[in-house]
Write a structure and sequence with these properties.
- Keywords: Hydrolase, Membrane, Transmembrane, Transmembrane helix.
- InterPro entries: Sortase, Sortase_dom-sf.
- One of its GO terms (molecular function) is hydrolase activity.
- Pfam families: Sortase.
- This protein folds into 2 domains: about 1-45; about 65-190, Sortase, Chain: A (Beta Barrel).
- About 20% of the residues lie in helices and about 35% in strands.
- It contains 1 helix and 10 strands; from the N terminus they run αββββββββββ.
- A hairpin with a 2-residue loop joins strand 3 and strand 4.
- The protein starts with a helix and ends with a strand.
- About 25% of the residues are buried.
């Protein structure tokens, strides 16, 4: 046996240990990223910006019916809608349905009705499939159904507050997390269909 072949045999166990250590590191890093993403999602979303959007006091009238269900034909999905709000700079969010930002617009009135939910298969996963021209139906707590036609879809940064601002027309904004580790928001905007 030559000196060269002996030195190769001695290096082989070291390389094997380094390869195994690196593989274990990658597995642990991947598991950590998945855990971190799940942890963030389980405790709600952060406020999109340091300054909250201002809504008209008229839009917070408690007598107006609230969204109760949403039907998204493109996803073949009907979802329950519950009240959502911002508390301690965190979004409250339903685990199984859609949340309605109670300080946003009212159905059938001028303003921006904001609905948001998790990007999971049973909630808003696949929202990206919704296209301009698609219809979304929202039923309020009084049983009235409102149809909205999608006119815009886009991905924005989490701090993009323009999607939350009031509007001069009757519109619906639906959004969910997107991007690597939920670093973006996918938004669908629709106007009340005539």
């Amino acid at each position: 046996m030559t000196a060269t072949s002996r030195s190769r045999k001695k290096k082989s166990p070291v390389r094997l240990r380094v390869s195994r250590a690196f593989a274990i590191f990658l597995i642990l890093a991947g598991a950590g990223l998945i855990f971190w993403s799940s942890f963030r999602q389980g405790y709600g979303w952060q406020t999109p910006t340091q300054t909250e959007p201002q809504f008209n006091q008229e839009q917070t009238d408690k007598e107006a019916p609230k969204p109760a269900k949403i039907y998204i034909p493109k996803l073949q999905r009907t979802l329950e809608v519950s009240d959502g709000f911002i508390k301690d700079n965190r979004w409250t969010i339903s685990k199984t349905g859609i949340s309605y930002l109670t300080t946003s617009g009212k159905l059938g009135e001028q303003g921006n009705v904001i609905l948001y939910g998790h990007n999971t298969q049973d909630v808003l996963g696949g929202l990206w499939k919704v296209q301009a021209g698609d219809i979304v139906e929202v039923t309020d707590s009084g049983g009235n159904t409102y149809k909205f036609e999608v006119f815009e879809r886009k991905e924005v940064k989490p701090n993009a507050v323009e999607i939350l601002e009031s509007a001069d027309d009757s519109r619906l904004t639906i959004y969910t997390c997107s991007g690597f580790l939920d670093t973006a928001r996918f938004v669908v905007v629709a106007k009340k269909a005539s």
